[in-house]
Write a structure and sequence with these properties.
The protein has 244 residues and is an alpha+beta fold. Helices cover 18% and strands 37% of the residues. Helix 2 crosses helix 3.
Length: 244
């Protein structure tokens, strides 16, 4: 049983490197550290990649990052095949593939805006570097893509701040309307849940539980638009967005 990994990315998504100590290896060989800046796959967002540099200068590539214990507290770093693996106690410096991460941060925040302009229950989603999508439970209706794009552009241009608050599990249970996703449960396990707010506390554009990484303001997202709207069943609509 490993101790909980300190998720540096949760409080500082802009940390590009950090020092850590190897705790051991997981059941599938993933490297367990005491702390990490690498986001683990979850909530539709893929795990981070990069490298770890040992205290003696040896390097190990990280191809992805995952939860060792099913999305609870322990994070595992999957090493590039064939590269040396550090033993427990090794001091390492983590270096994030920042360009990739920043694109994912921009896209994740963009999808939160998409959930604002389409205020329907979310049945699924995926965050990509150039394209992302949300699936919505929408009654039979024609969606005006141009009108939606115009509203998204307004939200980006507003350069609204993106901030975080924390509530207890009990507080979330008492406010179920905060949860937009029908298929993905908010990240729990520590007794508290992080809320991502777009806008200010007085004029919030969006507020929902999310453990992913986000940019500091909507203006940092950059230009994006709806690429495609697909019908996936009687009431399900898949809406894809892309950076432009």
């Amino acid at each position: 049983m490993f101790p909980a990994t300190e998720p540096v990315f949760r409080d500082d998504a802009y940390a590009k490197s950090c020092d850590a100590t190897v705790i051991g290896r997981g059941e599938k060989g993933g490297i367990i550290l005491d702390r990490t800046i690498f986001y683990p796959t979850g909530g539709g967002q893929p795990g981070d990649c990069g490298r770890m540099v040992w205290d003696d200068g040896t390097e190990t590539g990280v191809v992805t990052t995952v939860w060792e214990d099913g999305g609870k507290t322990v994070i595992a770093h999957v090493a590039t095949e064939g590269m040396p693996l550090p033993e427990a106690g090794t001091k390492v410096r983590l270096e994030l593939d920042w360009d990739r991460r920043h694109k994912l941060m921009r896209m994740h925040t963009a999808l939160h805006l998409l959930s604002v302009v389409l205020p329907y229950p979310v049945t699924g989603g995926s965050v990509g570097e150039e394209e992302g999508r949300l699936d919505f439970d929408i009654p039979e209706a024609d969606l005006d893509r141009d009108a939606l794009d115009a509203r998204l552009a307004e939200l980006v241009a507003a350069d609204a701040p993106v901030t975080f608050d924390w509530i207890t599990d009990a507080e979330l249970d008492a406010n179920p309307e905060l949860v937009k996703t029908m298929s993905v449960a908010p990240p729990r396990g520590s007794g508290r849940v992080r809320l991502v707010r777009v806008g200010t506390s007085d004029t919030a554009i969006d507020l929902q539980p999310c453990g992913g990484t986000h940019v500091r303001s909507t203006g940092e997202i950059g230009r994006f638009s709806i690429a495609k709207i697909e019908k996936k069943g009687k009431i399900n609509r898949r809406v894809r967005v892309r950076f432009v």
